[in-house]
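Colleagues,

For the teaching module next term, I've prepared a clean inverse folding example: a structure given as tokens, and then the sequence designed for it. I'd like students to try predicting residues themselves before seeing the answer, so please don't circulate the second half yet.
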């Protein structure tokens, strides 16, 4: 096993010019400043390639990709009230998807023990043929599809802990049993999707798992859901790869939502996922999504990297901490037990 985890990024993330907007280049600058102050936590820094067009169009139709390229070529503009593009946005989005794809390739080839792909714009709201919620291309979905199509996997698990429901990722894999999509998100909140009754369609029934939480929810509930729902789902599904859609807008300091997760909470969730994936022998990586309080974002990414590398809290071989079962856990396990016997108490 290689010694160094990897941090994938690209300067094009700074060329996605959104003007006065919460999803701004300063997000990446804040993360890199914090990591540089901590000597990059031992991570090897890698410049992300642009995603190959054939890999991108396995998720996003060619007509849609061409339309996004054309908006950039014209200098940009608003796609909706929230989603803005500039001349540099198409290139930034290509490298964002490319970073996630390269991360997956490195994890599955045994070239890195774990890693984090940090780009903007984020991706998890992007549907196959629609940009929305600051997102142009769905980086984590493109990476997961690449793992299935080109790298020989049969089962990928995605945990989305961004405070907003990852509706794009959910829609893309809604009818598939090859991706288990699990989302912990505040409700009610944009984009208004992610109800507990949204469980997938056709062969994908039961493979979409929504875990909505109320405004004000913090570390205790998030850790309880990860410990008692997400990790047992991983045991039941036996994925060959786990990806985290790592948004940090559930942080107590974030201006766009009302959850109360702390730096330590994000570190503990990442440590739990690392311990669970290690026990299953499954590679684990993370892809940046939201997070708009710059200091909180930078600190939380840093503790996530430390946890993924096994340097957060207890040593890498230690079991996950004991966490009580919140009422929301009991409800989730009860409604999911028909699909997932591992959740039967």
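(Answer key — instructors only)
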């Amino acid at each position: 096993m290689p010694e160094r985890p990897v941090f994938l990024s690209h300067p094009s993330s700074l060329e996605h010019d959104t003007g006065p907007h919460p999803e701004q280049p300063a997000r990446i600058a804040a993360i890199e400043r914090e990591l540089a102050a901590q000597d990059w936590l031992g991570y090897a820094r890698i410049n992300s390639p642009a995603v190959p067009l054939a890999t991108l169009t396995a998720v996003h139709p060619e007509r849609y990709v061409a339309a996004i390229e054309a908006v950039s070529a014209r200098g940009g503009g608003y796609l909706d009230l929230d989603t803005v593009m500039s001349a540099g946005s198409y290139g930034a989005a290509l490298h964002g998807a490319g970073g996630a794809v390269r991360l997956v390739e490195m994890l599955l080839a045994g070239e890195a023990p774990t890693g984090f792909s940090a780009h903007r714009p984020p991706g998890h709201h992007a549907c196959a043929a629609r940009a929305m919620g600051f997102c142009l291309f769905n980086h984590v979905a493109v990476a997961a599809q690449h793992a299935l199509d080109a790298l020989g996997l049969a089962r990928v698990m995605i945990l989305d802990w961004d405070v907003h429901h990852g509706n794009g990722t959910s829609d893309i894999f809604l009818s598939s049993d090859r991706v288990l999509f699990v989302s912990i998100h505040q409700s009610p909140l944009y984009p208004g999707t992610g109800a507990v009754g949204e469980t997938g369609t056709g062969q994908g029934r039961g493979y979409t798992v929504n875990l909505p939480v109320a405004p004000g929810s913090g570390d205790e509930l998030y850790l309880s859901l990860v410990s008692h729902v997400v990790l047992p789902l991983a045991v039941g599904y036996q994925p060959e790869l786990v990806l985290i859609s790592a948004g940090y807008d559930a942080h107590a300091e974030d201006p766009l939502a009302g959850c109360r997760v702390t730096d330590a909470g994000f570190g503990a969730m990442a440590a739990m996922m690392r311990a669970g994936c290690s026990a299953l022998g499954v590679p684990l990586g993370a892809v940046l999504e939201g997070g708009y309080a710059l200091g909180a974002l930078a600190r939380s990414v840093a503790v996530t990297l430390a946890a993924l590398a096994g340097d957060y809290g207890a040593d890498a071989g230690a079991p996950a901490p004991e966490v009580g079962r919140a009422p929301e856990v009991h409800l989730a396990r009860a409604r999911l037990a028909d699909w997932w016997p591992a959740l039967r108490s």
